[in-house]
Amino acid sequence: MVDNEDLLQRISERYKKMSKGQKLIADYILNNYDKAAFMTASKIGQKVGVSESTVVRFANMLGYEGYPQLQKALQEVIRNKLTTVQRIEMTSELDESTLLKTVSKMDINNIRLTVEEIDKEVFNRVVERIFSARSIYVLGLRSAAPLAQFMGYYLSFIFEKVRVVTSGVNDILEQLIHIQPQDLLIGISFPRYARRTVEAMAFAKNKGAETVAITDSLLSPLTSYADHILLARSDMASFVDSLVAPLSLINALIVAVGIRKKTDISSDFQELERIWDEYQVYIGKDRS
Amino acid sequence: MVDNEDLLQRISERYKKMSKGQKLIADYILNNYDKAAFMTASKIGQKVGVSESTVVRFANMLGYEGYPQLQKALQEVIRNKLTTVQRIEMTSELDESTLLKTVSKMDINNIRLTVEEIDKEVFNRVVERIFSARSIYVLGLRSAAPLAQFMGYYLSFIFEKVRVVTSGVNDILEQLIHIQPQDLLIGISFPRYARRTVEAMAFAKNKGAETVAITDSLLSPLTSYADHILLARSDMASFVDSLVAPLSLINALIVAVGIRKKTDISSDFQELERIWDEYQVYIGKDRS
Amino acid sequence: MVDNEDLLQRISERYKKMSKGQKLIADYILNNYDKAAFMTASKIGQKVGVSESTVVRFANMLGYEGYPQLQKALQEVIRNKLTTVQRIEMTSELDESTLLKTVSKMDINNIRLTVEEIDKEVFNRVVERIFSARSIYVLGLRSAAPLAQFMGYYLSFIFEKVRVVTSGVNDILEQLIHIQPQDLLIGISFPRYARRTVEAMAFAKNKGAETVAITDSLLSPLTSYADHILLARSDMASFVDSLVAPLSLINALIVAVGIRKKTDISSDFQELERIWDEYQVYIGKDRS
Amino acid sequence: MVDNEDLLQRISERYKKMSKGQKLIADYILNNYDKAAFMTASKIGQKVGVSESTVVRFANMLGYEGYPQLQKALQEVIRNKLTTVQRIEMTSELDESTLLKTVSKMDINNIRLTVEEIDKEVFNRVVERIFSARSIYVLGLRSAAPLAQFMGYYLSFIFEKVRVVTSGVNDILEQLIHIQPQDLLIGISFPRYARRTVEAMAFAKNKGAETVAITDSLLSPLTSYADHILLARSDMASFVDSLVAPLSLINALIVAVGIRKKTDISSDFQELERIWDEYQVYIGKDRS
What we know:
The structure is a homotetramer of 288-residue chains.
Chain A: H1 7-14, H2 20-36, H3 41-48, H4 52-61, H5 67-81, H6 84-91, H7 99-117, H8 120-132, E1 136-140, H9 145-158, E2 162-165, H10 172-175, E3 184-188, H11 195-206, E4 210-215, E5 228-231, H12 244-260, H13 262-278
Helix pairs in contact in A: 3-4, 7-12, 9-12
């Protein structure tokens, strides 16, 4: 896999050795990567006055199989480069009257792509590790904190060994200070990736723990420290991170755990049910 | 609107005055409401040996326009009656190999129905109230806490006046003790409805505050205390509440607020951007 | 031990069989227990026109060794009976100009009495149990939450097995759902005792766990469910619970644990020190 | 005021110009500041073979009025220089059998000195500002978080305008993003001072807000950004920060606020009392 972080830098470094046509492409991309990321090879060719195949070879030269791979890499660069202010600018182009439809369409599309692209073997392996781990740390910071909290909320009914790490009086790494090789850290992060989440993944890996990254792309900084990678789409043309597809994936993970542990959790929940009833935690249960 | 809470009781009370055919239907429903809730009128007719139109008239007699309304009411009854243990039983019938697809299909369907059914005027009015309110309390407990937290996370970048109520050292009502008539309480709850959320809505209403319910149905106990009702689907054949469609709706709400406040939040976020940069909160922003 | 909860009721029940002098005392106490609680036997005698020894016999008749025991019981009744509104009334009699001195004097006195009265064997046994327990739950709600948080903050540096229970998305009892016989629950509560703390102690005891109560008196409702009782004074003529002496006691507990685990925690903290240094958690460490 | 942070460095810088006797003292201090900090002038003189008055002049030369001031400065240096590992070493010299007495004596002494040294005018001004401020932020991180939480717990019954900042899904500075000139930030920090608390004080000051530091010494890094300084002693020969005297001071602050707002809070608490009663928050209130 080519490291996209330095894509723009790599283009700069190879600039000297480029053909004249390649230099034109390079100039355009370096100055307009935000636009280039959404143009086809032929469009870029037109723009700078070279052939489509020159653009394709430009991609090859940088180590990509074809232009689509280069384009995707550019999009990744953008995603991390966009400040929230730029995202708000983008948001303002959304039409308020069709907003709900637009947002829901993006969310539905994100879920659909997530299911299509998920690696089922990894999914099953993660479910297994959730059972076999000594301790499970579910970590999500900032906008990913609600996802970690949701996952922890359900898993802690089923297992004693769950610890949710979202914030707290102790710093994040302090909450991981006792992590061990038999433990599992499930790190959740989506663009813009919180630095401390990456640090926590690195810390856990370094201590020998097994790590799962729930993130949006192989280019996410979490993947460098992840034994298992579960990808969920979070594309959203807005300053809000859409965590709808990630939440759907986490739902499926919890349900998969629940199915395997069925008999055990039934008895756990029978006790909870008794408690909920005694303390009237829920409303609307028939008492007749 | 017919009160479904007592549907089974109402059937019992009218039993004496029913025709012989109606009694057969009543017997079947009272003993098998969990199955009946998912059968068509003709199927029930077959089961107990009466005509489809007898089943329809049975629904009319109970105050429903047609059989679909009775069926929906039965489903509501079930939803609140099902203990988590029963939900786990249901979960176990899910096929593990197709689990991800099943869950994602339900989630996509929930989002789709949510957008179709949403009342846009209410949606817009809620956006307006978020701007005009003196203070905004975003309240969600138990599995709805992550939703409240997510909504609060973004709204508190934009407004000072936001308070997230999910748990805390002070009890829930204590956190609402200063609520006033010009304030807005956004209460989020899905089956199984947390009792304390309903109490909080009632408390806020009683203090003269304006209230928004983000919930799953007009039959939700929150609606009794809500000035504005935003419905999002959360059907999920499992012990996990699916909050995917509610999250998508909340996304849309935040984006709608962001669009209207564009210029202001741009400057807020410029300052945040500076802070994030100085303290390296995020990873991957280009520093070259 | 005589149950003080029903002291006033017991007085009422025995009223019929009392001598004429005793009836006078009973009348006075039932109507003015808030004043009587702070009067000497001779003062009460004067007030109602009986001898001091009649007052003492009155105490004996109710099952107390002497008048001081009855007086203490009356003070306990008051402490739990006083609403916060009544406490505020009391507060208003404090002199603002000497406030700091008054508060600090009460706090110093509370610490002094706490050390004098502490049962050292119990103290040592609790330290031992902290080491030997499988899991340690440190529970404090409402105004006692900061104490639990403080204790948990330090203990969780030393042990992995610590869980702080102060509030949270999961209800209190849900956070204790996996508690077992080898576990230790340290419950912290001072007047006005939070009901849910008592429920949690009862729940843990019922599940076979070992329990420690850090509370103010043997009459505290926590003691019924406690294997070990550590008393700390919290008397404060105000609507604020003074948790200064309890905090001092908790300090001593943490230090005692630290002394015994010296070598181990040195290495834990060496790692923490490295982390704190790398992430500049603290200020002012010499880097030359 | 002399800046102690660089005391050791200043000694090094002036070394060249020192007399022979002063050089002997300087050598000893630079190599043994942890011991020197607890030696008298005459003891140091003996140690290095110079007169007591040479030691005193050494202090004068560095800008201190006398030796006691230099000694105090050295102790400050130590306090911040001591890693937790070194503190644990110190702790191990405490005698376990007299531990409780030792800890409580230090705590009592800390409270006594705190009251003696407090500036009453500052105390009263802070109470006034708590009333007049538009919003009040109570901030304490790490081991100071329980203090902030305790203070916030009570103040938020009395005022709506209180926000407790101890941790959270939003970063600390993000929670202060809306702070304004009419607002009050009460920052609480004791050695080892959390870096983020100092950053938060600086941030608030920079935004024009009024700031209060509750800290242990004029040499605390918080004081640079504080409009009002309230000092409370926290000396403790251990890895645990003793927050007993600071808690006593905070108690007094809350009570002082309560006394002034008496009538208003009575009615607030009457409503709370009704809520507490209805939801049985507390135990032991007489219901007869």
